[in-house]
Amino acid sequence: MKGSWKKSAAGAGMALLFGLSVLAQPSFADPVSAETTHAFFAVNGEWAYLDDGYAVISYQDHLYVPARFVAENMGAAVSWDEATQTVSFQSGKGSKAEQGAGSFYKSGPIAAQTQEVHFVFNGQEKTLDSGYAALSYQDHVYVPARFVAENLGALVQWGEHEALVNVAYLEGADGLSWLKSFAENHPGELISGLKAGVKFSAGTDAYTVVVTHKDGNLAGNVYFVNADGKETKLWSNIESVAQIRSIAQGDHNVVFVNGGAGMHGSWLYAFLYGGEDGPVVVKSFFGDLRTDVFMLDGKIEVAESNTDTGNSDEYLYEWNPANREFVTLDTSVKEYTKASFTNPILGAYDTIWEMRGYVQGDEGGGIPNEWNPHAAETMNAALPQLQWLKEYVTRTDAHVLTTADGSTDQKKTYRYTQGEHAVDVTLVYAEGRGWVVDAIQPVK
């Protein structure tokens, strides 16, 4: 295992390593002393969290975490052969692990044991370097996982000030060498987000987009790198993990980069192709509550919200491809005491997330204040047909809404589509109050 990073925790330095957890019944060596500790994890611009029952372990000045966790967050399949005590990894053969709300890992001494385990990556057996061992803790196996990550083609970076384990990977045989070269040419920058094959139109170059920040939640840059290695470097305020997506409207794509701004809020940047100058920033958005992108009737919309003395300033923007600019559709103040929405489009979009929370049990069993009694009745009646809302999506996905026929100035119905599923959300205007949700109707 080449190279290591050191960090301080519980009075000892820890090199950046990770681990794998699989159920096993092996023969054990002598017990060893170790301790659980705390760290954050990100994989290609997405936060990743350990499931309950697993821990981050410090052993002999090294940091271990379950490598099934790392591998599955890279989309790899992991299998265990108990007869041969072998863990097998297959790149791209699994589904990305769903993420929960996350948890903090408690620190304290533990008793673990070393264990002999065999590892096979994409059909090739690999062995741990001398000085490293697999650990058994609470019936699970933990192994050094820079070993796992790099054998699956990932670059691992350590953010000491953030206690951040940062994993970045690109598909393809040259992915790891490309990332190592990029990291060497940009010292001090952590890869916050990463996406290959990004195009602005059929006739433009395909770019690998890399978002970076500096350790300690300091702002970094957005890089667009073409196939020849030519970089376009654009500064950003993003200070942590970032997501990248390309959204088409007409013949051209707008590339969006969305990322955290320290402890509160998020930045959203929109990029277009600028000809000989390469990609350029069209507009930046900031919201301490949200900055979301969604589609409405085939048009790109951006929602931005900021808190203001207990209420929120709401902004709705729409992309105008002819003028290559975002135009402001609505500016309003949402008064939470009125328990309503000031704009029906934003109301429908927010209702989708309220519905997700209700189906998943995150709303405490209660109906959101912006829903009237009829909406509650229709939602409860539709629950068996709306279990697909539990499927994992993020607010950074481009969600699709369409305006239903028959909508009026006083009543609006919007259809939300997700894969093969759809649901209609109807809002009505209540005089002196605003827009309230009136009905939830699954589409058969």
From TrEMBL:
What keyword terms does UniProt attach to this protein? Signal
The record's section on InterPro entries has:
Cu_amine_oxidase-like_N, Mao_N_sf
In the UniProt record, the signal sequence range is: 1-24
UniProt domain Copper amine oxidase-like N-terminal: residue ranges: 44-164
Q: What is this protein called?
A: Copper amine oxidase-like N-terminal domain-containing protein
Organism annotation: Tumebacillus flagellatus
